[in-house]
Design a protein that fits this description.
This protein is mainly beta. The protein has a single domain, classed as Beta Complex (Metal Binding Protein, Guanine Nucleotide Exchange Factor, Chain A), CATH 2.170.150. Helix content is about 5%, strand content about 40%. It is globular and about 35 Å long. The mean pLDDT is about 90.
Length: about 140
C-alpha cells in the first residue's frame, strides 16, 4: 500500500491563544458531520492518531465541554470560543482537527469532504474507528 506524503500543519483558535500542529496527509479526506454540535460549529474533521498531534501553546486557555456519553472532550478556547480540535468519541485514542482552523487550509494537494451522518451516531460511528490508527 502506498502511503501519501504527510506534512506538519499548524493551526489554532481565532485569538491565537491556542496553537497546535498536526501531521496530516497531503491528500486528505475529512468528514462533514451533521450531528448537533458539528453542524452548529462548521467543524470539518481530520482525525489523526494522538502521536500525530502536538499542542504547542494554550493548554491553560482550553476549556472542555462534554455531553451525552461524556466520552468526547470538546476542547475550546475560553477566550474566543473556537474549538479547533478535540478528542472524539469515535476515536478516544486520537484527535480530530478542524481543518478550517489550520493556518493554511488551502495548502493541501487535495481535500475530499465526505458527509458523515452523526445524527444517527450509533449506526455510523464504527466507520471512523480506523482514522486514529497509526498508518
Amino acid at each position: 500500500m502506498t502511503q501519501t506524503p504527510r506534512t506538519w500543519r499548524a493551526g489554532g483558535c481565532h485569538c491565537g491563544a491556542v496553537r497546535f500542529e498536526a501531521l496530516l496527509d497531503d491528500v486528505i479526506e475529512v468528514e462533514d458531520c451533521n450531528c448537533s454540535i458539528c453542524a452548529k460549529t462548521g467543524f470539518l474533521h481530520a482525525i489523526v492518531p494522538a502521536a500525530r498531534f502536538r499542542l504547542l501553546e494554550g493548554a491553560a486557555a482550553l476549556s472542555v465541554y462534554q455531553f451525552n456519553s461524556g466520552v468526547a472532550q470538546h476542547k475550546f478556547c475560553r477566550i474566543c470560543g473556537i474549538k479547533s480540535f478535540y478528542t472524539p468519541r469515535s476515536n478516544p485514542d486520537g484527535v480530530s482537527v478542524n481543518i478550517r482552523c489550520l493556518d493554511d487550509p488551502a495548502a493541501f494537494a487535495a481535500v475530499t469532504i465526505t458527509p458523515f451522518d452523526g445524527r444517527n451516531w450509533e449506526a455510523n460511528a464504527a466507520a471512523l474507528a480506523h482514522k486514529s490508527q497509526a498508518g
